[in-house]
Amino acid sequence: MRHVTREEIRELDRIAIEDYGMPGVVLMEHAGAGAAECALEMLGGVRNARVAVVCGRGNNGGDGYVVARLLHNKGVAVTIDLLAPRDKIVGDALVNLRIIEKMNLDIRAAERGAPDLSAADLVVDAMLGTGLAGAVREPFLSSIKAVNAAGRPVLAIDIPSGLDANTGEVLGDCVRAARTATFALPKIGFARGRGHEMAGEVTVVDLGVPAEILARLVGRR
């Protein structure tokens, strides 16, 4: 399976949404469902499992809201640490945030400080996605440090927060994941720099996009 750049995966999303008419929220549902399955596998037979989902403001956070909803539906005790002001969340991410708000899930505003992860059996990193190209800033820097210091297994959503998707470079600091649920195709940064070290076991999640889009993307190089 060929590894792709951030630009290529962005183009995949564009083609699926604009040319094929797939709503972004459908892609987000597939992403979150695949990641939730990975989380359940990591929990194994843990009784009364507790999962902390740490979410940024963009679509990576939106994927995290889907994971939180689906884990809750499976009986997992979920907390959501929100690292952005509520009014800054828009688009498909907002659609899924509103759903978990209606479900009265435990959503905590953590943008002013690092999340408390001491009670979690598993941490889901849904902070920063493949678009990150510059140094990690607050509140994400403190939150990445908190995730790594918690001593809990971590599932990264699409890419560990703080990892450059193209170079595998750590952009100041980076989540060290036990497993990464990456979407559609693996990112080239997983095979470069410190990518393998930070991503852990990589599972590729099917987004349900038409196969010819993937074939076109893979055939470009």
Produce a short descriptive summary:
By secondary structure, this protein is an alpha/beta fold. Helices cover 38% and strands 16% of the residues. α2 packs across α3 (59-73) and α3 (59-73) runs parallel beside α4 (91-102).
List keywords for this structure.
globular; alpha/beta; 221 residues; 7-stranded parallel β-sheet; 7 strands; Rossmann fold; single chain
Tell me what the structure shows.
The chain has helices at residues 6-19, 24-43, 59-73, 91-102, 140-149, 195-199, 211-218; strands at residues 50-55, 77-82, 106-109, 122-126, 154-157, 179-183, 201-205. It has 221 residues and is an alpha/beta fold. It has a single domain (6-218), classed as YjeF N-terminal domain (Rossmann fold, 3-Layer(aba) Sandwich). It has a 7-stranded parallel beta sheet, sandwiched between helices. β4, α5 and β5 form a beta-alpha-beta unit. α2 packs across α3 (59-73).
Provide a count of the helices: 7
Instruction: Record the strand order, biggest sheet.
Output: 3-2-1-4-5-6-7
Low-confidence stretches: none
Mean pLDDT: 94
Tally of separate domains = 1
**Quick one: CATH superfamily?**
YjeF N-terminal domain
